[in-house]
Amino acid sequence: MDPLLIIILALGLFQREALGYPTKDEPDTKIIVLQNEEMEPTILDCDYEIKDKPTFLTVKWYRDDKTIYQWILGKAPAPIPEFKNDVDSSYESSTDPHKQYSSLALINPTIETTGKYKCVVQTDTQSVTRQQLVQVVDVRNYTLNLHHNRIHNETQLECIVTNVYPRPTITIQSNDEDVVKREPRVQEDEDGYFNATVVVAVYDTDDDPDAYQCIVSFEGYAQNLTVAGTSAGSAGLSHVDMNLWLFCCLYYLLSKLKVVLF
């Protein structure tokens, strides 16, 4: 091969690694959305190939480096006792006897199911490691409200979301550009769920009503939680309008009083 071509190819591979292009060994993320009804198991596969007929084979699954399940060829698969309610050890992933119980079937998921999973396959001649990220999303019992309070020519918008998992990103969007944003406040409760609040100040400069939308999003999850609202234009009740309104109210009360007196 031409030496120049070898150098070009080498530089190309170096740049590919330097730029951080994903490789087949980089884990992707599996999203589990919790539901109120009974859920189907979530299956994590362990991809490997057996080159020769091994004298022994073991498959171990870890969550955040803690063993949760293991299978030894020729023996029944078994989750670690602490995780017996989290794994369906009867699940068969393949008709190949060397892969029959190699997958991890997650059942009864909770927010604690979130984590970094790893399967390690070992034989007398080879060792294989595969990784998988799992992210649980729980928005079954959330609340989301958008409040607005009128203070002179300023509208304060406050969006509050409660009881969500994982940590949310919360923003308020406007159809106008007169919004002064403030940093959201996110807190984790004792059960591991999150409550978040964001407040923005809106300075209306026209008489047109403005539309607002509060958006709650989660990293890696395509569906957002949203709530919309509308505020009146900046004119609202002007100083003259307010005086007229007070005069009308006073006139109405005096007319009623006159009827009573006469």
Automatic annotation (TrEMBL):
The entry's keywords: Signal
The Ig-like domain, residue ranges: 22-129
Signal sequence residues: 1-20
Pfam families: C1-set (PF07654)
PANTHER family: BEAT PROTEIN, GH04238P-RELATED
Name of the protein in its database record: Hemolin
